[in-house]
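Sanity check

After download, print the first record. It should look like this:
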Amino acid sequence: MALTLNHFSIRTLDMETTRRFYVDVLGLTVGPRPNFPFPGIWLYRGDHAEVGNAVVHVIGMDANDPVGLKNYLGDRDVSSLSGSGSVDHIAFFADGLSAMLAHLTTQGVKARERTVPSIGLHQIFLDDPNGVVIELNYPAAEKQALDAAA
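Expected structure tokens:
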């Protein structure tokens, strides 16, 4: 299995200030983002046509409507969003979905799965022993092939 860093995500109550930092200070640009059930911004380091260039995902926490975020990524206490507590998850591109799912079962690791059809990704979310969420991104075609074989 090959892993390459895909992106990191930051949860924030202040998306605009966060956006300004990454755009004005680091030179990233705001680009397309799938229609997730919570607010957010994807910041790119290059061509917006390549989803792999979306290296920072800003996750907006809407205190008036937290359900979409809570159901998709889990709940976080607002008081924990300081320093590295703002880092929501670390994501890797990966391959070998079937082997990984079998491996996780043997290791007794619980995973949460999602498919994002608009960008052709199948995601697996895991919690490391410290509570850091790890996201593994596989080509959606691997999931489709797995489902077709079942």
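If your output differs, re-run the checksum step. Summary of this record's structure: The chain has a mean pLDDT of 88.
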